[in-house]
Structure formats: structure tokens, C-alpha cells
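hiii so um. not sure if this is the right channel but i have a protein structure encoded as C-alpha cells and i wanna go backwards to a sequence. like what aa goes where. can anyone help
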């Protein structure tokens, strides 16, 4: 998921774990040194076409707005708004890796999205957040901040509540 800076101790840890087969890049600002990791481990980088200028040599390009199965159990879900080509990754209908689209606000104890850090379109981010209601997941694992695990139905209620808050006038 996304990419950290290329650091020797991380390279060593990744090697010890067997390497990196794929690097899923949620959006342009969290690509760091994905190109260096891809070169070192012969990894496939996956990114949406609207973010391609951040990794122009990426091996796999996601097009359009429809969910796309990348491999068994791995579903790429375009979630534009934070950036034009932002995507989330759903693993086994349980773990939603959300990049910068969605996170858990530990102070308010609820799902959250940040209008302050929405770089493209808040209405579009609101629509794509509502689109996540079509999927089941129990974990939200953001690129920044705290993740959360809730029962599936509770997660759906939390997400619906967030969409309502996002639709309210600023």
C-alpha cells in the first residue's frame, strides 16, 4: 500500500519477508520512492490513470470509475475527490485500505474525511464515499492516522453517518 521512502532498513525488512510483488498506489502524494522499490524487487506498481504523472512508468494502470478486481480477493475501488484518481483497495471484503480518502477520528470516535485536505473536489469525494456503502468491510486502514475495526453493520452505519455529515453545507 502506497510507498515509503527508500530506506536500507526497510529494504532489508522487505527482503526478509520475501520481497514486494505489487505496490498499490492510492494517489499521487503517497508514491514516495515506489519506483525504486519496484526496480529493486521487480514489483508491479498499480495506479489510476488520473494519477499517472506521479509514476509515469507504472506497470499497471487503472482506468475509469468502475471497481476492478486486481487479483483474487483484491478489489480496486476508484474513490475520486481527495485527488482526481484516488483509489481504495478492498481485500477479501474485510479490509479497506483507504489512502487519504477516509480515516478514523479517535477524538470523536467516528469515521472521518477532511475537507481541508481535499485537493480535488469535495462533492466528488462525498459521492465516492457514498459509493463505498455498496461494499462490506470491517476494517478501515488509512494511509495516515488510526485504523479501526468494527462489526460490518456498525461500519456501514458509521459510513452512512459520515456521508450525511459530508453532504451538509460547510
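sure thing!! here u go:
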Amino acid at each position: 500500500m502506497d510507498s515509503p521512502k527508500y530506506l536500507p532498513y526497510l529494504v532489508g525488512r522487505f527482503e526478509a519477508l520475501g520481497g514486494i510483488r505489487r505496490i498499490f498506489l492510492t494517489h499521487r502524494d503517497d508514491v514516495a520512492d515506489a519506483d525504486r522499490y519496484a526496480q529493486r524487487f521487480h514489483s508491479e506498481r498499480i495506479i489510476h490513470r488520473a494519477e499517472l504523472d506521479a509514476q509515469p512508468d507504472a506497470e499497471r494502470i487503472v482506468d475509469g470509475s468502475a471497481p476492478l478486481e486486481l487479483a483474487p480477493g483484491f478489489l480496486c475501488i476508484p474513490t475520486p475527490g481527495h485527488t482526481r484518481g484516488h483509489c481504495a483497495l478492498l481485500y477479501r471484503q474485510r479490509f479497506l485500505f483507504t489512502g487519504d480518502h477516509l480515516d478514523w477520528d479517535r477524538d470523536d470516535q467516528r469515521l472521518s474525511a477532511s475537507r481541508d485536505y481535499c485537493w480535488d473536489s469535495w462533492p466528488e469525494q462525498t459521492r465516492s464515499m457514498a459509493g463505498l456503502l455498496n461494499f462490506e468491510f470491517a476494517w478501515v486502514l488509512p494511509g495516515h492516522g488510526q485504523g479501526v475495526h468494527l462489526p460490518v453493520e456498525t461500519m456501514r452505519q458509521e459510513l452512512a453517518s459520515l456521508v450525511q455529515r459530508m453532504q451538509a453545507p460547510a
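oh and The mean pLDDT is 96.
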